[in-house]
Amino acid sequence: MDVKLSKKGTTLIIRIMEDMDHHSAQYLRQKIDSELVKSTVKNIIFDFSCVNFMDSSGIGVIVGRYKNIQKLNGKAAILNANPKIMQIFEMSGILKIIPAYNDLDAAISSMCS
């Protein structure tokens, strides 16, 4: 699994570089959780620019990290998901709890309010 992590202030930006399935979910979960433990992250943004497929294990990773960041009084956002991935988010109900954006600055600004 290829994932790129970067930080902007207290926001962790997780750029997922390939499809999310049960093969990659465990690695992604561990990578994000270890970053949450060792740094001063308050918010997370999941960048789906490079993701074309996601199964239920990917949804589990997103929801689990959302719950973890909520415990820290933080927020989560979805960034640059294509229409197919957005449909998965809509059907799963994720968009009721995690907002989606097409602009990084807008996503970061939303976390300040």
Automatic annotation (TrEMBL):
The keyword Repeat does not apply. Keywords: Phosphoprotein, Sporulation. The keyword Nucleotide-binding does not apply. It comes from the Bacteria. GO terms for biological process: sporulation resulting in formation of a cellular spore. InterPro entries: Anti-sigma_ant, Anti-sigma_F_ant, STAS_dom, STAS_dom_sf. One of its GO terms (molecular function) is anti-sigma factor antagonist activity. In the phosphorylated form it could act as an anti-anti-sigma factor that counteracts SpoIIAB and thus releases sigma f from inhibition. Belongs to the anti-sigma-factor antagonist family. NCBIfam families: ant_ant_sig, spore_II_AA. This is Anti-sigma F factor antagonist. It comes from Ruminiclostridium herbifermentans. The lineage of its organism: Bacteria, Bacillati, Bacillota, Clostridia, Eubacteriales.
